[in-house]
Amino acid sequence: MIKESIIFFDIDGTLLNYEKKLPTSAKQAIFQLKERGHLIAIATGRAPFMFEKLRKDLDIDTFVSCNGAFVVLNGEVIYTNPLKIESLEKLTENALRNNHPVVFIDHHDMKMNVPEHAYIKESIDTLKLDRFPMYDPHYYKGRELYQSLLFCSEGEEEQYEREFQDFDFVRWHPVSLDLLPKGGSKAMGIEKLTEILGIPAERQYAFGDGLNDLEMLSTVKNSVAMGNAKDQVKEVAKYVTKSVEDDGIVHGLRMVGLL
Fold it and tell me: Which tens digits make up the pLDDT trace of 122-151?
């Protein structure tokens, strides 16, 4: 009898290819894992509303979203780690003076604090979402936000990193960074989830490719970096599989003995 394991999959560059499509081989592999009694979960920087269709297509209702700040188990929210709004307000004021826009994100929606900006369109368009952030500069007031996006060129984030100690900054695009609660990560969200499930470390697996996967892949015992991952991501993973474009999910699952 196969003992239940839990496998966490990043989305962009891991489950989804560069065209933001799910390879048939990856979809088939996930359903094979389910048939074998394993639990499948998503671990992503995206907010829940950004991957509803993928969850439906794969019949997944357990996920670590917003880079660990919003965690759901079997459709129920089990952990949240919101941003400190007072610090976010100060950062936004500074960013506006530098012509660096911000997008506010909760589990339902995202809003931008400027009417329009080329950086926002350039980066958000790459996600191929079915919506675009509307203008609402006060969306942060009176609600919990689990992530924000700061838009600036590489290197310009250093001034914010020095001044705003309540946040971590992780670049995901040449003109955009994830803004996270200090110390927040997919790894933290995974820990909260696996504690409840009681699945031991030796039966935990994770696949990823981006800088926001570093903590996850260096913490989860059976970690797999995609062949298209950045070098520093490959360095912390236990295994390196093929590219997402070359059936990397299936190859990686075979490497670790799950298929």
Answer: 999 999 999 999 999 999 999 999 999 999
- Could you count the other beta carbons within 10 Å of the beta carbon of residue 236? 17
206-219 burial, b at 16+ Cβ within 10 Å, e below that, comes to: bbbbbbbbbbbbbb
Active site residues: 10
Element (H, E) at 78: strand 76-80
Q: Which of 217, 246, 221, 248 is nearest to 233 (CA)?
A: 217
Q: What pLDDT does 2 receive? A: 57
Q: Which among 58, 59, 77, 60 has a CA at the least distance from the CA of 69?
A: 77
Indicate the SS3 state at residue 190.
Answer: helix
H/E element, 135:
strand 134-135
pTM (predicted TM-score): 0.95
Tell me which DSSP letter residue 3 carries: P
Tens-digit pLDDT profile for residues 162-183: 999 999 999 999 999 999 999 9
Q: What are the chain's domains? A: 6-80+184-255 (3.40.50.1000), 85-181 (3.30.1240.10)
**Residue 103 in tokens:** 């997008």
Q: Which residues 6+ apart lie within 8 Å of 164 measured at CB?
A: 87, 90, 91
Is residue 13 exposed (0-12), middle (13-18) or buried (19+ Cβ within 10 Å)? buried
